Amino acid sequence: MSAGTDPAMGEAAGFWQEFLPADPGPPRGPWTDRYPAAMPDGSRLVLPLRDFGDLAVTGLIANQASFAVCRRLAGWMAEAARPLGAEAVVGLPTLGHVFGPLVAEALGHRNWVAPGYSRKRWYDEALSVPVASSTAPGERRMWLDPRLLPRLAGRRVLLVDDVISTGSSALAGLALLRLAGVVPVGLCVAMAQGDRWLAGWDAAVPVAAAYATPLFRREGTAWVPRPESVPVAVTLPAGQGAAPPPEERPPGQSA
């Protein structure tokens, strides 16, 4: 099936509002403006494709997703990250704040830590780092409230974000934690988006995710998944294993 003709993928309710029933086999393309990403239980979450010229990526805006979708994603995130034995969760701004408290609660924690982009009167410049992301490229500073340092001291800390794409936001999070004297036990995200982040990532910090998606290359007016770009160096929920490569149809063959 093609994304442009399947009524089940209509935008009436918007993206990220519900999961589609399980569909055996990998998603088939080419795709035009959306992609049904496989979830750990076999269901599909339809994601928009973001056009970057010769490259497209899947999009997830967590604060526009339904509560039900966020809860299920957070549950899978917690399942993937549980082996890391985290004792504290730090959720990165802005959209990591959607999943930070949900993952912390799912792991049995009583609270979480939320760095932010606004500075309070008592904040210390020494606990801040510059940050730019693929979705908000303008540079700003991320701050950590010094009053929350006791929640992190001597504990196994898990960094949480919505997506890892280029890795810039997550690397800023690692830098901020270093200023607090913390080396996290890992990063946990809802979506590992392709493999562009791998080259600059600290291999000593494992990455866990609810699901992973490939990058896409242009083919005429459509997009074709690049199976080799699925990030295999990511821990997914138990039983899912490495993300299966998407099926790619021969050029010119309809889906």
From TrEMBL:
<dbReference type="InterPro" id="IPR000836">
    <property type="entry name" value="PRTase_dom"/>
</dbReference>
<dbReference type="GO" id="GO:0016757">
    <property type="term" value="F:glycosyltransferase activity"/>
</dbReference>
<dbReference type="InterPro" id="IPR029057">
    <property type="entry name" value="PRTase-like"/>
</dbReference>
<feature type="compositionally biased region" description="Basic and acidic residues">
    <location>
        <begin position="246"/>
        <end position="255"/>
    </location>
</feature>
<feature type="domain" description="Phosphoribosyltransferase">
    <location>
        <begin position="62"/>
        <end position="198"/>
    </location>
</feature>
<keyword id="KW-0328">Glycosyltransferase</keyword>
<feature type="region of interest" description="Disordered">
    <location>
        <begin position="235"/>
        <end position="255"/>
    </location>
</feature>
<dbReference type="Pfam" id="PF00156">
    <property type="entry name" value="Pribosyltran"/>
</dbReference>
<keyword id="KW-0808">Transferase</keyword>
<protein>
    <submittedName>
        <fullName>Phosphoribosyltransferase</fullName>
    </submittedName>
</protein>
